[in-house]
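TL;DR need C-alpha cells for one chain.
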Amino acid sequence: MRPSLSVAVGQPVCLPLDVARNAVEHARLIRRAGARLVVFPELSLTGYHFDAAPLPLHDSALAPIVAACADADTIALAGAPVRAGDDRYIAMLRIDAAGAATVYRKSWLSSEEQAWFTPGGGPTSIDIDGWRVGLGICRDTGVRAHVEGVAALDIDLYVGSVLHHHHELDEQDARAGRINRICQASVAVASFAGSTGEGYAVTAGNSGIWDAQGQQLARANDQPGQVVSASLYRSATPVAPHAPSSCWSIDSTRR
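>> reply
TL;DR here they are.
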C-alpha cells in the first residue's frame, strides 16, 4: 500500500472517431504526466459521438497507450464505447502495461444516450496500489444515489471522466465539491476540452484535482492538449458535512 498516489488529469486533443490518432495523443500526455494514475474524459478515445463503433479491448490502436503505461509505470483510465453481448455501453477502460480492461460502465444515462446505450451496473471501485478508487462518468457525478453508493465503498479517491458545455463549469466544480464532502475522499475530474460531437462545440475543460479536505491542488484551463498532476496523501481529517438534497438534480436531460 502506497502512502501517497500521484494522479494526473488529461485533456487530450481528440479527433472525431479516430481511435488510433487519439491513442497517440493519450500516450503523449501519459509520458508527460509521469504519474501513477492518469485519468481522461468521457469517451476520450472516440469523442462524444453516439454512433462511434464499440472498441474491442484487444484493438491494436491502443498499443501506444499500453507502451506509454509500461514505460512510465502508469495506469490510465480512458473513455470509449464498448459492447457486451447485444448491449453498447459508455465505458471507462483501465489500460496498463498488460493491456486494456473495462472497469466501469456509465450507470446514469441522459435521455439522448438511452437511445444508444445500456446503463451500467452501478457504483464501482478499483484498487490501485492499495488505494480504493471510486469511478463515475459524467452524469453519474451529479446523481446523489450514485455518489452515496460510491461513498459506501469506503473509497480514498473518486475519479470522474466528464464532458460539460463551457457554461457548465460552475456545475462541474459544484459536483466535485459535493463528491468530496459525501465521499470524504480526494477527487480527480478529467473534463473534455475542445469541440466534440452531439452539439458540444465549446466544452468546459478545467480538469482538476482536490485533496480529501477539499483544497484544489491542480487545475487545467479550457484548452485541449493539457495534463496536470498532484500527489495525494491519505488523511483522517474529515471535511464538512455534505450539501443538502436540494443541491442535487436528476433531470433526465442533464448530463
